[in-house]
Protein 1
Amino acid sequence: MKSIKLIEVRSELGAGTRGASLGIEALKLASLEYGSYFFGKYKSKEIRDNSRLLFKNPVRTYAKRIRGVIKIFERQAKAVSDEIKAGRIPIVISGDHSSAGGTIAGVKMAYPKSKIGVIWIDAHADLHSPYTTPSGNIHGMPLASALGIDFQDKPKNPVKGDTVPFWDVLKNVGGICPKITPDNLVFVGLRDMETEEIQYIRKHKVKIVKIPQIHKGKIKEICNDILTYLGGCDYLYVSFDIDSLDSSVVKGTGTPVPNGLTVKEAKKLLTGILKDPRVCCFEITEINPLLDAENRTASRVFPIFRDAVNAIEKRLKKAQLEKRMAEKITKSVSQVKPAFPVVEKKSNRLIAKKTSSKK
């Protein structure tokens, strides 16, 4: 039976504010507030971070700390790939959203010849590159790295020096670029974008599920529509940035945005999507307790995360049960004796075996 493995990525090198590296512990503390032993239930793997770089000057204005982020990408990609190849489903809990680029690289490494679909639940598109970024923070660039896009034709920033080769290395982590295509990408909750991102989405007709659609309450239909749209994909990766939630619900995140999802909507959305057997990896990100009070954000997010993982586990158990039943039926059929005489061929003559010696 397939199992679940937690991958903990405490890096916040891609973020603009400090504290996202503490998000994993905040979520664990929140679980205890609910009296839950969730984190004692699953095995976990920690990705070694490069947090020491936070105390050094980020010399590359348009790709801050990119050398450190590359290392995170490489370690994370290997961890995700290894877990998938071992028959497990990696659940990634990350500090900032730049790590999603490493996660996608890992999924692609595990399935290099397959079509990977991405469901990006986020207030932001994260489609920037060093050529367009307004901040230089790489948590706004993970999808661009996975799609292999640059916007070099209309650069807004004067990118120079070694930023260009480092960006190329980031895009090519895992040895494949691009890893996904825009027609296999779905945005959910998107509502805060820059011009370059809007133009890319329009040009490539990337599917967007907007908040007003979700507020109408037909979430089951929305989930089915998303999964049908990605019907040509072999495997799916689901990324959940908590800023997809309304800013009145979550204040402990780096870039909160109003008019977002409610907790109830997020639960229904994730459980509806994660039931699909093609989902091979799920990630939750951007919890920042330093921007919060009394760990309220993590306390509101934990039930969403718990229900999402439970949906995956329920699906795995159902698949295992169906497999056992199928094996049982096959075994039963093979043990059934034929109700007719056995006929064998011998010396070019058919000889019917007698079923009884009585005359």
Protein 2
Amino acid sequence: MLRRRIRINAEGKELYRFINGLHSEGVACFGQYCRSDVFYGEIYRRDLKKVRRLAEECGVQLKEAEYRSLMKFLSGYRHRYGIALGVAAAFLGCIYFSQTVVTIEIQGNERISSDSVMSALSELDIRRGSRIGDLDLHYCENELEIMMDDIAWAGIRRTGNRIVVQIKETVEKPEMVHERIPCNIVAAKAAQITSVTVHKGMAMHKAGDFVPEGALLISGIKQTDTGRMTLHHAAGEITGIYEETAVFTEKYRPLRYVPTGRVGKERRLRLFSVDIPLFFGGNDYENCERDSRLKSFRIMGKELPVGIVTDTITETALTDDTLTDEEMDKMLMEKMYLYEKNFLSGCKIIKRDVKREKNEDSMTFITSYKLEGSICRQKEIFIK
């Protein structure tokens, strides 16, 4: 039942006058009947005032009860404007998101990073928040293939408010190794040989030999039994134990930015690519470090392009405070760790000796390494 109906019963001396008044007033009355001098019927809610007035004029006792209906249920919430606004916002949101790009999914990429593809799509106006009706997906497919040389084929399709980009990468050309150029393998460092593996050429040393830097390890020149000389591209792998020295220095009074202890937070509502501030004013820090974290909203496990960005702002000040020996050791150890990670990752560190030297201005680590690794270096054979 959508329309609101009232069940009534009336009794009194002028009952028939009341009934005739209902008919003359044009009140729609359903299922009416009389029993034991009591009149029963059903009327619409809108006619209740008329019926009450007639009952008072006729001196009739009126009883009423309303049926359950959808309109009665909704009328209980007619003054709750927040619910109405929420329903309206949800309805408008459904309409908006159905015509807007919410998710972009990239499939088929292995060598090409998703960020690179997203950047190219952004130039074609395919991004979160773009209006789907404004996108020419067939045109964007062709343009994406032209913009990125590593893409051989691209297909873009729409699934609801989701854009699926399928790509096929080009086949990389195999690296051309100049194996026909005659060359020798020489020692890149002075070392004691630990292993010898020869693929092409003739080994000039064996495991256990000590060789100086530049010594011939694998020769690309061979002599046949008849005395004829032939040239080859020497290839192989020779490892050895060698020594290296690295120097790390740090000043006692370096110019650096350090935290002052003042920390603030700023929150912003991210709607696609637009950030709406949720704070008033701002910080008065002259120098600061900012750490941003995004917490996206989720519905049924799917991440939405809407979330809260929280910026943690730490005030810093430029200082040249004197560092303690413990702080100096820590900073120099970090430098040494980064050096080993970046430059010695392909070697085995057998031994490490660190010698500390201090003066009034700085501290120095002189680190002596004993390493085991490849000592091969190609050297072309020039023929006159």
Protein 3
Amino acid sequence: MSVVRRWLLPTSGLLLLLWYLRAPSIDPIDDYHIAMGTMVRMTLYADPADATAIVEAGREAIATVEAMASHYDSSSELSHVNRLAGQGPVAVSSAMGELLRETWRRTQQSGGHFDPALGLLTSAWGFPEAVQPPEAQYVAQGREHSGYHLVEWNGETIRFLDPLVRLDLGAAAKGFAVDQAVRQLQQAGVAAGMIEAGGDIRFWGLKPDGKPWRFGVQHPRESERILVIDDIGLPALATSGDYEQFFEFEDRRFHHLLDPQTGYPARRAVSATVWSTSAAAADIMATAAFVGGPQIALQMAAADDSLEVLVFYEKDGRLQRVVSDGVRAHIQGDD
């Protein structure tokens, strides 16, 4: 028996690489800091004299969401909901309500391929510290007491129909935090910029050099291969992949993106990149596209003009990819 454990901060294994094509005289304000378990990068085009205040505004917005939606912090609002919603309806803050509305909307749009109520199941797997799969009985128990169908959410209060249900907003909160930071920075007068948090990207405005925003999507198994994609007209993108948090056990890779239907890691894709109108939507739908696989991802994009997808998957032992029409029209090269 061989066991290999591996987990990565998304910054060390990103499939999303921002390509900066700017004139040397254009110097944005760049800030890096750790938040929500990953590296956050803010690249802002603004008056350098305002740099300190602007950076602090962006950092504070992200920290506020982290304090609200962390399931590691027992004092967070999410932990409060998880403790009490099994006993009766729990009122939520306006910010949590906004996050839950977007989460439930996208859950329904994805047909349940993304599910925010898998907390007991994800606990059974124990990522990122896991070194081997849980026993089948614990997976079965996790599935029995998980699922958004066991949650009542009316826009103001939330209640669990099963007292063992737990919310896990990890696939939504990071993108939501990016959106909140962008909102705060726009209100502060930052006309253009980009925020990236562990592969969740949101950009806005026109760069002063007039050059377009361009992105490179790495091949999930060959890091030197880059697929260059121009701005497709949607301001946010995110990637979910089997390289983010995983361990190898008995020559098989087990990653943290669980299929709600089986309780085990989803096997239909290797990575999924989604473009959407917000980082939260891209974050959630990237998970859904990964879990659902290439055909489900294309169907979701075809049904929603504000959604585009790129999915790598394995077939007959070979890695292949599919792209939605909006992505195909903006691919510039595959190096």
